[in-house]
Amino acid sequence: MSRARAVVIVAAAAGLITRMLIAANMPGPADVRIFHGFAKAIVRYGPIRIYEQPLPGLPVYNHPPLAGWMLLGLNELSELGIPFGALIRSPASIADFFCAIVVFEIARRRGSLGAAVACGVGVAASPVLIATSGYHGNTDAVAITFALAAAHFLVDRKAPLAAGVAAALSISVKFIPVVVIPALLLVALRAGRPAFVRFTAGFAALIALVWGPVLLTVPQNLKENVLEYAGGGYRLWGLVRFADLFGLPESFITYIEGDGHFLFVLACVASGVWLARLRPAQLPAVVAVTMSLLLLLSTASALQYLTWAAAGLFVVGFWEGAAYSCLLGLTAVLGYQGRSAVHWSETVLLLAELGWVVLAAGVVCGVRKILAARPEPPARPPAGRTPVAASCAERRTGCAVN
Fold first, then answer.
1. CB 309 within 8 A of CB 359
2. For residues 307 and 144, is the Cβ–Cβ distance under 8 A?
3. CA distance linking residue 27 with residue 18, whole number of Å
4. Is the pLDDT of residue 400 over 50?
């Protein structure tokens, strides 16, 4: 076991070094410049008031509160002479290091040790994650790592307090893992009152600490910038790409890009809750499948969004993760080449279409594997106690509940 874990740690370290070398030697996409602009604005206005400020030359600041504090810290480090372009890509790169270990720990409890090592190494060497974390940056990989860690802590480590904190951190750095929070809450509730209380205490305490000041100060701006953010209007990925290709009515495309995308979010939430109710012990895979389904149904188009499914599909299985990472990794690498920082050429668009099909197959495989897993046996009552749901016949024969 220790040797297998060491192999994954060494691979994760090599992956981290690779990512940081890319970050140190390549300029990255426009997001690097945009994040630098956000950091300068946060220094001026603070990580709370930033949501109500007009930012000329910058897009809407749509990041949860913890990202603001992160940018404030990274800006301080840049004042010491460390290039901001390398700093902004370090959180995602470091997150990938830990994610490889988390995926290994999840997989080894549900399969062979060799398969678990392959899955952990797969995360470390994933072309999608190397491209999106080492070159692009952003905070998607950080959010996914915390979401998978929350599921691992809750059902594998039996550490609901840490799980609640990890769940809160996941949505505090990037809001997308909000779709898995109901499934986490359901499994915590099913684990018993003490587990649920610890999970919700950790979750609520972190949310109050990070989100509370912003909610009390600029709630409307936070709602508009973060909670209601629907992504860009480009038609380069998934449902909107196919709808455009097949010539579907413009009104339909506009609807699914606008208010209709909330229906897809609700479908992801409902799917996660349904799977978690049926197979609570498979919660890490449920989180992985839910985030992959969110990407599958996403009406927004951005190469960094490919991160959402990259590590999770290795939780589903090595071949599912490898197929996705190789095909969508090529998509990302080609998309980051050329004069433009991000260029969706015809080749990239074709690869993305094929990758969407591979992602769909991965989601289907994930659901099938979750449902095929053996259900947990009902928990036995403590010694000397009769279950609360004792039969009427037992009560009539005088069986006492101690």
1. yes
2. yes
3. 15
4. no
CA distance 329 to 348: 11
- Single-letter amino acid, residue 277: R
195 close to 25: Cβ distance less than 8 angstroms: no
Mean pLDDT of 34-48: 95
Q: Are 368 and 357 in contact (CB under 8 A)?
A: no
pLDDT of residue 137: 85
Around 88, how many Cα atoms within 13 Å sit in the side-chain half-sphere? Answer: 28
Tallying the residues shown for the chain, one arrives at: 402
Which DSSP state fits 131? I
Q: Please, what's the largest Cα pairwise distance for the chain? A: 83
Contacts of 155 (CB under 8 A, 6+ apart): 187, 191, 280, 281, 283, 284
Buried b (16+ CB within 10 A) or exposed e, 90-123: bbbbbbbbbbbbbbbbbbbebeeeebbbbbbbbb
Paired tokens of 204: 């609520």
Beta strands per DSSP E along 184-295: none
* Unique residue bearing structure tokens 């090595």: 318
Which pLDDT score is estimated for 344?
A: 85
Q: Any idea what DSSP says for residue 361?
A: H
Cα–Cα separations (whole angstroms), residue 65 to 173, 300, 332 = 7, 22, 28
- Provide the residue type at 71 as one letter: L
The label of the residue with tokens 């691979």 reads 11
Whether pTM > 0.70 for this model: the answer is yes
**Closest to 94 in 3D by CA, of 142, 127, 132, 140:** 142
Tens-place pLDDT, residues 175-199: 999 999 999 999 999 999 999 999 9
CA 279, distance to chain mean position in Å, is 20
**Alpha carbons 318 and 13: distance in angstroms, whole number:** 20
Alpha-carbon distance of 204 to 263, in angstroms, equals 26
Q: How far is CA 199 from the centre of its chain?
A: 19
